[in-house]
Amino acid sequence: MPFPLPTRRGFLAGLGTAAVGLSFGLSGCHKGSGKKINFYNWDTYIGKTTLKDFQAASGIDVNMSLFANNDELFAKLRGGNQGYDVIVPTNDFVQRMGAAGMLMPLDHAKIPNFKNIAPEFQDVAFDPGRRLSMPYTWLVLGIGYRKSKVQGVPDDWKWVFDSPMYKDRIALLSEAGDLCRLVFKYLGYPMDTSDPAAFRKAEELLIKQKPYVKAFHDDNGQDLLLAGDVDIVIEYNGDIAQVMREDPDLNFVVPRQGSQISSDCLCIPKGAPSPDLAHEFINYLLDAKAGAEISQTIQYPTPNAAAKALMPATYRDNPVIFPPQPILAKCEYAKYAGEAISRQYEEIITRVRAA
Amino acid sequence: MEQDWKQSRGSFFTAFAPPAFWLTLFFLVPLAIIWAYSFGKNISMTEVAVTGTLSNYARIADPVYISIFVKSIVYAALTTFLCLIVGFPVALAITFAPDKAKAWLLLLIMLPFWTNLLVRTYALMAVLRTEGYVNTVLGWIGIGPLPLLHNNFAVVLGLVYVNLPFLVLPLYSALDRLDRSLLEASLDLGAGHIRTIREIVIPLALPGILSGLLITFIPALGSYLTPDLLGGPDSQMIASVIERNFKRANDWPFGSALSFILMYLTFFAIAAQTLVAARRRKAGGEA
């Protein structure tokens, strides 16, 4: 029986708040200049040697701690910054934290490697002019599936949202906002809709589909798929790409209706102890070679054009990591739509789970 | 003979003050803040104003939340009941084991506490999953695979597994204190083993049984990890909803109100237990 190592968001999600204290003992290794920054990142979301290389190049120690999801990051910084210099929120949380005044504007003069970023990521709707954030990775939600157990290519949200076909073999994402937005997409609404009819229909659809659903997973869908608990699952492309290296019977598709695209970004929270060193670190992460080393480890799509050029074809031409352009054109970024809408997402899921 | 605390006030307060200070600062004060939040409302993304409003509690009257509370209580009660069924014979067996074996048996009961709950839960997932150990063994004899994980069965199994020591230990300490000569007298006078347990052991050990039930029921009621990881789409307990309101929905006032409803339920259970115990003492005193 395979023992999948939970990756990125999976394992820590289970720990919940207990995950907060995990950190890597890099700081003790070098006395050196005593320059140090605190980096608050996702699990398995950095290159194997990135922090050591940065230490060697700049003399700055990076003390990395981990969070399991954006909500944890937000809750941690809600009461004020306890000393983080660089954080990695997802695009809608860049907007949310920006709106709450929790982020420091970036000084582009200190980040010359910004030129490495692909043009489509240099200016984005969720952060016009990249005032607050630098792109680190991007990712797209889709359907991960076991080829031998699924008929053809399940390139339609119908198979997870609106069909008894894979009864008890389906796992949905438990993240309320993401799940609701994908259902809106399937129902033909804009993803950022605030139409009460859309919310009602989404709730009805999910309640109708619930008897066929095996589990709501905390972003560990790739593990459920790999372990054979389910055959079809909503997950991020990078997560599925990681387990596809272990099991060739797995695959990933972005459904034809389009999906939600996200971008994890590097930001400096207000109150950061060393903003100058934080800029230096962000600039280093956007370097071509450093970026390639990160992509090599984490297998997520990179917005860094110079880094991508250094990667082997198995990465660059991987249709899971880089889905075909026509389907990506149908994908949208999640928008932060205000607290009231966020709470409505949660209420829908509470109702669906209780139904 | 126990000394009355009034006879040595000085040493009493020296011993009492540090833990009292600790509990006040790190338990009562944060709890009071959460309690205050439950009467508050969100005025911005990061601030809560305590206005004295009851709207958070009013929201809980929604049938959805009532049904989640009811479901949590049913799960916790079922867990406690199963723990009692499984734990009573175990506690009884340990009581009557030879002294040397006793220490080892108690150690075995406490052994799971040495491993983190999350790790134990992941281990249980490896045992129960479709291609897990149980189903692999069942496969050899041509059964299955049975759906053991991601359903209500898995949640109750996980809760019983986690909470069993909480019941066995107080049960054991209650049973161990029994006067053996009463049991011998009952057996000598012609009562069978079952009748002796029913009419002598259970009534005498009842206070211990009740407090054991209580300290199993309370943590089971607030379980979070177990239903979240082992449960299916249906297995939503109240702690998950509280977590979601604090984190994802960023609605601390409502989350606080939900937490405090859980606290009130716990107080209620403790009060009921105290009442039963007091009534028993009174009845015993009159007899």
What descriptive keywords fit this protein?
heterodimer, A: 355 residues, alpha/beta, D-Maltodextrin-Binding Protein, domain 2, 2 domains, seven-stranded mixed sheet, three-stranded parallel sheet, 37% helix, B: 287 residues, mainly alpha, MetI-like fold, globular
Question: Could you characterize the architecture of this molecule?
Answer:
The complex is a heterodimer of chains A (355) and B (287). Chain A is α/β, with parallel strands linked by helices and 355 residues long. Helices cover 37% and strands 16% of the residues of chain A. In chain A, strands 4, 5, 6, 7, 8, 9 and 10 form a seven-stranded mixed beta sheet that branches. Chain A has a three-stranded parallel beta sheet with strand order 2-1-3. In chain A, helix 7 crosses helix 8 (196-209) and helix 8 runs parallel beside helix 16. In chain A, 52% of the residues are buried. Chain B has one domain (62-286): MetI-like (MetI-like fold, Orthogonal Bundle), CATH 1.10.3720. The radius of gyration of chain B is 23 Å and the shape is globular. The two termini of chain B are 26 Å apart. By secondary structure, chain B is mainly alpha-helical. Chain B has helices at 9-37, 55-60, 63-96, 99-110, 117-128, 133-140, 152-176, 180-188, 193-221, 225-230, 238-246, 252-286, and strands at residues 40-42, 48-50. Chain B is built from twelve helices and two strands; from the N terminus they run αββααααααααααα. Chain B has a two-stranded antiparallel ribbon. Classes of the chains: A alpha/beta (355), B mainly alpha (287). Chains A and B meet through helix 3, strand 6 and helix 16 of A and helix 3, helix 5, helix 10 and helix 11 of B.
